[in-house]
Amino acid sequence: MLSIVEEPEGRWTAHRDGTVVGRAELWARPDRRRWLEFRDCAPEVYPALAAAVPGAVYVTVDVADDRTREALLDGGFVVHRAEDDYVVPTDPARTGLAGVRIPPGITFVNAADVDVTNVASQTLLTSLGGRRVGGSVELVRAAPCGGGPGRTVA
Hints:
Layout: E1 2-7, E2 11-16, E3 19-28, E4 34-39, H1 46-51, E5 57-62, H2 66-74, E6 78-87, H3 92-95, H4 119-127, E7 131-141, E8 152-153
Antiparallel strand pairs: 1-2, 1-8, 2-3, 3-4, 5-7, 6-7
């Protein structure tokens, strides 16, 4: 049987048969959103730990971690947003932009502002030597859950 114990300072610990099988820590961002960070957890423990935390919480999951994402979706979270990470070289010698003057009417755009769902944007990133190196999915559980200290989950 899995049991979740609330610890001091916004921490929860999952126990199975007397052994710690996961931990979660809650922290508030400057924008006052509450983020839950998991440690030493198997994906099947995430929903139980998250359910013990009252109120709305956000979680970030690596885009390649399908098992954890699916476990959290099954546990009441929904996808809030997703990001792709790109590496784009900036060395003018490598990009071919050394000594090039910017013609009138041309504007540089920060790669962070490029809409990567747009095929033209993806082509631009690729033409600049950019390559996708991963990403993350941000999940949110907006509805409060009825967890609490010492809650036992079947």
